[in-house]
Every structure is written in C-alpha cells, then in structure tokens.
Design goal:
The protein is mainly α. It has 2 domains: about 100 residues, no CATH class; about 70 residues, no CATH class. Helix content is about 75%, strand content about 0%. Helix 3 runs parallel beside helix 6 and helix 5 packs antiparallel against helix 6. It is found in: Membrane.
C-alpha cells in the first residue's frame, strides 16, 4: 500500500528555531491562527498572515514541495467554497474565507512537520490531563489521535491504489469497482488494528 499524505505534513527532522521551540508555544501558534481565522475580516490581512506562516514553514526546512502536498488535497474543496462564497457574498469575502482556511492548515502542518509524533502525543496527553477529573482518559485520547493520523493516509492510499487498478481495467466509472475494494481493505485494516490493540491490553474499558 502506497503512503499518502492527507492535509498535514509529516515530520521532517531538523534543527531550525521552529524545531527547537517548546511544544506549548507551537500549540499556541496554531491556536492563534485558528482564532485569527474568525477575527480577521480583511482578505489582505488574511493573505499577510498566510504569507508569514508559509515563510515560517519554509524556514523550518520542510520545503515547498511538502507544503504543497499538505494543502493539495484541500484545493478542490476550497475552489468550490470560494466560488460559492463569491457568488453569495462577493470576491473579498470569498478570498478571506479561503485564505483563513489555508492559514489554519499551514499552521497545523508547521506543527506536525517540526514535531515528532511521540512528542506531539505527549503534549496532547499533558493538555488533556486536567480533564481526568471529569472522567477523561488522556492516554486513550492520544491513542485515538495516533490511530486517526495513521488511518487516514492508509485509507487515502487504498482509494488511490484501487482507483489506479480500476482505471487500468477500464472500470474507473464503475462505483462498485471503486467502493467495494476500499471498503473491504478498510474493514480488514480496522480489524487488524483492533486485534493489535487487544493483544497489548488496549482498547478495552477498565473495570
């Protein structure tokens, strides 16, 4: 099965200033970009903020190709959103919405590209620990995120492989030839993941 990225960039080892930033500061940066997407009302400010994030991404050493791969799956959706908003609310509003979405994606990609997955999950556990008093399990929460980050690229890769195989047989317009193999592969992957978790004593509620 081929590996496929999905929206967020994979970790790139490095020694840049962004790599060395404390994890909490990176979390704050992503949070600030998320809040900015609601507060920025001028498309020019959104473009400026996006430019800054892109420059930070390039300065981290992750590379322009990796940045493009991180946002490429989102481009068709943004095209539809932008066209609809342009029709409903005009060009400036459409540009602001699209740019703010890209801002959040690039900020999250900067986090994942400069932070090893184990450190990222440790940070999630630390952030979720105060909610333990309400019955939350930080370790299970981090495990869920880890499985999600692994599963989405796998499923995307399964779909791409099945699509290429169907195209080679002239069946690219046959929904059954596309959906059924991906469904079977996904179910098998979920079963194997569940069995692996059960073998390690994970995934079952504690008594």
């Amino acid at each position: 099965m081929r590996g496929h990225g999905f929206l967020l960039a994979n970790y790139v080892p490095g020694t840049s200033l962004i790599h060395r930033m404390p994890l909490w500061l990176k979390f704050l940066l992503v949070l600030a970009c998320g809040m900015a997407s609601f507060l920025i009302v001028d498309w020019r400010l959104a473009a400026g903020a996006l430019l800054v994030m892109c420059v930070l991404f390039l300065l981290s050493g992750a590379g322009a190709v990796r940045l493009f791969r991180a946002v490429r799956p989102l481009l068709p959706i943004l095209l539809v959103i932008g066209a609809f908003q342009w029709w409903q609310l005009g060009g400036p509003v459409a540009a602001r919405i699209v740019l703010n979405i890209l801002l959040c994606v690039v900020a999250a990609s900067l986090l994942t590209a400069t932070t090893p997955l184990h450190r990222l999950l440790d940070g999630v556990v630390s952030l979720a620990r105060p909610f333990r008093r309400f019955g939350a399990d930080p370790e299970r929460f981090a495990l869920t995120i880890a499985i999600m980050l692994r599963s989405i690229p796998f499923i995307a890769g399964a779909f791409a492989d099945v699509r290429d195989s169907a195209r080679a047989r002239g069946l690219e317009r046959n929904p059954r030839a596309l959906v059924l193999p991906v469904f079977i592969t996904t179910v098998a992957y979920a079963r194997h993941t569940g069995e692996a978790l059960a073998a390690r004593g994970l995934g079952e509620p504690e008594d």
